[in-house]
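user: Please supply your own:

assistant:
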Amino acid sequence: MTRTVLVTGGNRGIGRAVAEAFLDEGALVAVTHRGRECPNGVFGVKCDVRDREQVDAAFTAVEAELGTVDVLVANAGITDSTLITRMTEDRFASVVDTNLTGAWRCARRAATPMVRARHGRMIFMSSVVGLYGSAGLTNYAASKAGLIGLARSLARELGSRGVTANVVAPGYVNTDMTAALPEQYGKQYRDAIPLRRFAEPEEVAATVVWLASDEARYVTGAVIPVDGGLGMGH
């Protein structure tokens, strides 16, 4: 049976790699975006996950075009880093509202159809920073740590209905953001990673695809690091 997959923030970086990996698996794939080009072969829906009405409209559009969402990959996220002494409440709240509350909005909208079908996969894109911490990223780290509590609560709440909820926690990944790092910082970060390199987006995507597969049907409430050993279980 062909599955319908929705990847939030699926038009670039890790989200784009996830969408393309599901396409390669033969899934029907939709992505949310905020006005940028989408991968070929996906159904793109403009959506800001901070807006409940836009989230509902995006799901409605996907359901009309591709069918009920079987797999939700809550990937949409932003950063806005600075030290806590300089961080305003608005900057903190904006990141948490996008990364954590936005994922909750999507999960809430996906839950009822999944419960009715007695089958579903929710996969939340966290970060090693959510477990490990990082100076200057209190807002981002808090939002990514919160995804773990969200996923594990959903795992307990929805497990009896055949719905799993899991977390992927990437480390440093070769994206536009890491490409912009000054060379001395890039080397410093790589030296802290046992595998001595950043991940490729496709390596993160492979873990997401596996969590959505039948082989992972007994995995729920898990946090899977894809960080080259940086976190070491933190």
Remarks:
- The mean pLDDT is 93.
